[in-house]
TrEMBL record:
<feature type="transmembrane region" description="Helical">
    <location>
        <begin position="526"/>
        <end position="545"/>
    </location>
</feature>
<dbReference type="Pfam" id="PF06808">
    <property type="entry name" value="DctM"/>
</dbReference>
<feature type="domain" description="TRAP C4-dicarboxylate transport system permease DctM subunit">
    <location>
        <begin position="115"/>
        <end position="554"/>
    </location>
</feature>
<feature type="transmembrane region" description="Helical">
    <location>
        <begin position="292"/>
        <end position="320"/>
    </location>
</feature>
<feature type="transmembrane region" description="Helical">
    <location>
        <begin position="551"/>
        <end position="571"/>
    </location>
</feature>
<feature type="transmembrane region" description="Helical">
    <location>
        <begin position="465"/>
        <end position="486"/>
    </location>
</feature>
<feature type="transmembrane region" description="Helical">
    <location>
        <begin position="365"/>
        <end position="382"/>
    </location>
</feature>
<feature type="transmembrane region" description="Helical">
    <location>
        <begin position="341"/>
        <end position="359"/>
    </location>
</feature>
<feature type="transmembrane region" description="Helical">
    <location>
        <begin position="41"/>
        <end position="58"/>
    </location>
</feature>
<feature type="transmembrane region" description="Helical">
    <location>
        <begin position="260"/>
        <end position="286"/>
    </location>
</feature>
<dbReference type="GO" id="GO:0022857">
    <property type="term" value="F:transmembrane transporter activity"/>
</dbReference>
<feature type="transmembrane region" description="Helical">
    <location>
        <begin position="592"/>
        <end position="618"/>
    </location>
</feature>
<feature type="transmembrane region" description="Helical">
    <location>
        <begin position="441"/>
        <end position="458"/>
    </location>
</feature>
<dbReference type="GO" id="GO:0005886">
    <property type="term" value="C:plasma membrane"/>
</dbReference>
<protein>
    <submittedName>
        <fullName>DctM-like transporters</fullName>
    </submittedName>
</protein>
<feature type="transmembrane region" description="Helical">
    <location>
        <begin position="492"/>
        <end position="514"/>
    </location>
</feature>
<feature type="transmembrane region" description="Helical">
    <location>
        <begin position="125"/>
        <end position="143"/>
    </location>
</feature>
Amino acid sequence: MESTPKPRPLGRAVASLAWIGAVALALAGVWIAGFGGTSETLLRIGSFTLAAGVLLVSRIQLRLEQDKPWMIALDLVLLAALGVAMQRYAAIGEALEIGLYFFQPSDIAIGVAGVVVLMELTRRAFGLPLVVVCLLAVAYALYGRYLPWIFEHGGYSLQQVMQVIWYSFDGVFGRPLSVVTTLILVFIVFGAILEAVGAGPVLLRFAFAATGRMRGGPAHAAIAASGVFGTMSGSVSGNVVGTGVMTIPMIVKRGFPARYAGGVEAAASSGGQFMPPIMGAVAFIMSDVTGIPYLTICLAALLPALFYYASLFVAVHLEAVSRDIRPIPRRELPVLTGHDWRMSLCFLLPLALMLAIMISGRSPAMAGFWAVISAIGLGFVLNPEVRRSPQVILEGLRQGGLAAAQILIAVAAIGIVIGVMNMTGLGLRFAGIIQDISGDSLFLSLVMMMLGSLVLGMGMPTVPAYLIVILVMGPAIQMMGVPVVIAHLFVVYFGVLSSITPPVAIAAFAAAPIAKANPVAIGVDACRIALIGFIIPFVLVYNPSLSLVTGFTWAGLAWVCLRLTLTIWLFSTGFSGYASARLGAPERALRFALGLGVLVPMIWVEAACTLVALALVWRDWQGRLRDSDDAPAPERADTIPAEAP
């Protein structure tokens, strides 16, 4: 007991250092977005050093609180190794840029130490999957000469590998890290500031008020809220936790099973990653990788994302009807106050300003800069709590800095994979093999792409998942003549949906402790709810009009929208087993077959299945009208007690 007070001053000092570092990283992201930076080398190594330092010092703070001296010693060693590695890089950075530096053995050893620090930080932030992928990439670069088939390459020494993955702009400090520093950090800070000024809870209240009278109630609110928050968040699991803490218990309370509640939140949170305008920061990376304007990517992603969320709404509604779950009584719905309406401007006005700036031709980074500034200003003007406690802005910057640090570490780790792929050319060889196996079958090639994307994306945040998948799968799908923007969206969808696909399903694992349900079961339900999301990328490839930017015709758009709408209804009723009445197994099977048939890219199959599907929908509609006419007055939803099933 006598020794406990001793570490407290040190703990406070370390906590202050971690706090300052996180705020500094957030402010650096905002400054760079608004005013640019100095040299490219300084931007990349500076942001990486600050991010790694913040995470290490934060962990030391935690170890001090837990009184674990051996772990503190390890973190201090890692911090020292980071300092040496980054000091050395800074010292030789100018010579590296002009290619006039001859490497010494000590440089290689220091580089290895830097990679070790990066791998340990990646393990702490994201677990083992991403670390394993990076280590396999390094092992492949070193020992690929001994492998058979397409995996064999000429072989590289440790010095050659370290020169690429550590001491060049093709590896850890490559272009993706630069994009995150100059473009994405400001939007991460924007999301954190919105939460800090109180816009997040208000938006959730709006979601509940807007959807409360639907049969799904809180489940529909979870879909709406997660779609809004998810587009600003680069982390599916972070979105699940942020909104799920409130929505999942309320969904369960209304009568849905716990596993289904977790599945709804996981599916909705994942979808935010391909919902414009921000798309979980993937849109900016995609724009940089493809050279396609950011707004074009947002436009191409808009309709597919809206159809995805429409399918979630329909699936939840039918599940609620099949379980006889009633709407939330009016007396339990949140009442929106004048303060709520004013606070909604903290989100709406910065978003409108951001879009206006980008439409005017300015960069997304500049739009993000003014979005942050306007959000802070509106927070002070509209929220008395912010005026009374302005330190909440600093807390928002701290939270944004911590989130940014994790994203920077993840993208730096992916730089290892990118460097190895560029060295060995494995991506192009893999693309050639896929083309040889699938022959002239576009569908078979797409299925292989889907499976590969689901496997490569498992256990990873959205941005790293996209970068890895597009690096391996992108060349193959583009070789088949698929337009670039559609090829990349195809990869994004399955890279994102890997977060709900068992057995890894990181979104399901994030929802499991809140729902108190089995994560694999949550993943299964999430996949069932989000099934249309697995189909939309194929529809996009075969019906490019859905993208609005390539191969567009009004007739093509109307035709694909009709068929995709029918598929959503047929699949949702088939899974729930309810349309206007209970469905037997044969009719449920028929609905699944028709749902696929209307999308088969053969005009006579499409037309025949569409006619039958329309007849079924008409019958369902008539049945629901008869049911509503026959329902007695006491069965009205607003007279049913809250505890009714």
